[in-house]
Amino acid sequence: MRRACGSRIATWAGRRPGWRRAGVLAAVLALAAAWAIPAVAEDGHALWLRYQPLAEPARGSAAPVTALVAAAATPIQAVARQELLRGLGGLLGTAPPLADAVARPGALVVGTPESVPALARLRPALEGLGREGYLIRSLEIDGHPATAIVANQDIGALYGAFHYLRLLQTGAPVDALDLRSAPKLQLRVLNHWDNLDRHVERGYAGQSIWDWHRLPGWIEPRYTDYARANASIGINGTVLNNVNANALVLTPMYLEKVAALAEVFRPWGIRVYLSARFSAPVEIGGLATADPLDPAVRRWWRAKADQIYARIPDFGGFLVKANSEGQPGPQDYGRSHADGANMLAEALAPHEGVVMWRAFVYSDEEPDDRAKQAYTEFVPHDGEFADNVLVQVKNGAIDFQPREPFHPLFGAMPQTPLMMEFQITKEYLGFATHLVYLGPMWEEVLRADTHAEGEGSTVAKVIDGSLHGQRPTGIAGVANIGSDRNWSGSHFDQANWYAYGRLAWDPHASAREIAADWVRMTFSRDPAVVEPVVDMMMASHQAVVDYMTPLGLHHLMGRGHHYGPGPWVEGGPRADWTSVYFHRASRDGIGFDRTATGSDAVSQYAPPVARQFGDLERVPEDFLLWFHHVPWDYRTRSGRPLWDELVHRYDRGVAAVREMRATWDGLEGRIDPERHAQVAAFLAIQEQEAQWWRDASIAYFQTFAQRPLPDGHAPPPQPLEHYQALEFPHAPGDGR
Ligand code: BDP
């Protein structure tokens, strides 16, 4: 075998003329050299943890760390110490020496009062910080100025270590620190919509990173990188498989694989969870039913939980999508969501596991407005869920649209822990190619006032438990992570993963400040980069809303794959999977009447909110067509008739993308060429696609509006039929 292979190479090389041979040799040598050099190419793999040397003057402001005092007696302590050595080594040029005690000025002392005795006197200051919180303080230890990163538990010290490194990376002063931080939400979880065959539903970053076939024998180093990146932003849980779940993941063969991943993640404070298929007792358990009130079914789940915990003692619990989009669930047996959730909760409770039960439910057999169905189904069960159940609610009532008003369930279930579910992967926001920073969109929802307990009852306060006192608290983000070298399919999509983690830690945080940190860590600390890039990111969400779904329009994308515009989508198996169901355009106007004269979805909000959304004069114009059906000549707040305003916004969106391109082009030379070029190419695609959305939507809606385009706005270059005929059989991420 070896010989045959060798001779094939010889023959191949021998056929080429001499100069070509030399060229090949040079290329091979160059390749070998590149391999020998540690990877310096900016391919995005290092994420925001690049730890590039700090250039002056920022390094001057960072007090040099003269020694690191940190134990490594537990796996978490060991990774924290390792991370600091790695980070400080990269940022400051050399890693500080390890020391047992503070013997000179400038030591960094990291740990808990137990792991590092010098920190014991800070114990009182740790009160209220819980298991995961930490303190970073400049102080004197043994007569020397030092910096302490101290926590009640190892995991808090690890989070503190990442925070300290972030301060250095972003150029923040570190000489007079007095910082306290603790997460406001307990469960900060990623949801991977990854199938066992490695296809990622709504994934735009390659395949699933879980190499199920080779697990548990082969542990990809990437699993550690993944855990480390998540720990750096405080994520403490991961649901490994798709909510459209395959019961096989609960079989012993797969549980071994899951256990292997759990072992990699454990030192980084990350627990694994699984999506559980409700019908698993039938599919893999040989039972005739999955009825949650059937004693044999309950026994089966208890035994399953015991089996899981025997392998994974810190298993987090189950995520469940039930009776939604064809998934099995308790209603198949005439039982309620609470019956189903509580059965699983009972099985997990002895092990302190939780159930995250999704509220994303709607049925095409239910004639009522899809936006109302979750509320209608769940609110009557408030107070019925077991203590270890959280109801996981998408940010809006339809489905991760470019912009949605907050979900009316927030604030409406005071006796039930509600988790937020955000979608980090951009299923409806241009996949991985469009530059859309989701921070402002999430911030808008988190800061929305539910008025559940009077003014100031924000969604953030609902989910952090400060409004109604529910426990546990949590948040989930549908991951945008895949096998692509840069993890997220594009450099800027890393910012969405990053921002999700930071907002999960503190849902009251500022999207702009998070963006600024991310840019400094990911691209450059040069203000000439940070300012324009942050501005561009902050404007990017409004841009995509404008060119895809302005004025509250929603659910207008291509059927199935959700790529590109499809406002004409109608017919098929379900009305609530069409576009016409949502935009309701006709000769007399456009928009979904959700006021009292229509579906009355507004009445699901607290009265002050319902009054605002229901009132044409007061509804935020960004939600106009979400809540109202208005004639084409309806006068909008700009003074323009609705049709003109719609066209104006489509064009504003395209123009904003053009502006982003100009901004980015202007940064050439300030950003490494590799990443600059890819972002530039993606922005060019985004501009084309923004134009396509605009043209196709205008061509379609004009057939109803029957009005000319306002002055200065060009007609779509193609007839409507052209856009309607476009097909994309291999668009990525489809649901299967
Ligand atoms: C929709 C996706 C679909 C998911 C579903 C869900 O198109 O692939 O299964 O959400 O959240 O947005 O369950």
From TrEMBL:
Entries under Gene3D superfamilies matching the protein: Alpha-glucuronidase, C-terminal domain, Chitobiase/beta-hexosaminidase domain 2-like, Glycosidases
Residue ranges constituting the Glycosyl hydrolase family 67 catalytic domain according to the UniProt record: 168-487
Family matches, as SUPFAM superfamilies: (Trans)glycosidases, beta-N-acetylhexosaminidase-like domain
A GO molecular function held by the record: hydrolase activity
Domain Glycosyl hydrolase family 67 C-terminal: 489-712
Catalyzed reaction equations: Hydrolysis of (1->2)-alpha-D-(4-O-methyl)glucuronosyl links in the main chain of hardwood xylans
EC number: 3.2.1.131
Pfam families: Glyco_hydro_67C, Glyco_hydro_67M, Glyco_hydro_67N
Assembly mode: Homodimer.
Protein name per the record: Xylan alpha-1,2-glucuronidase
Organism in which the protein naturally occurs: Luteimonas endophytica
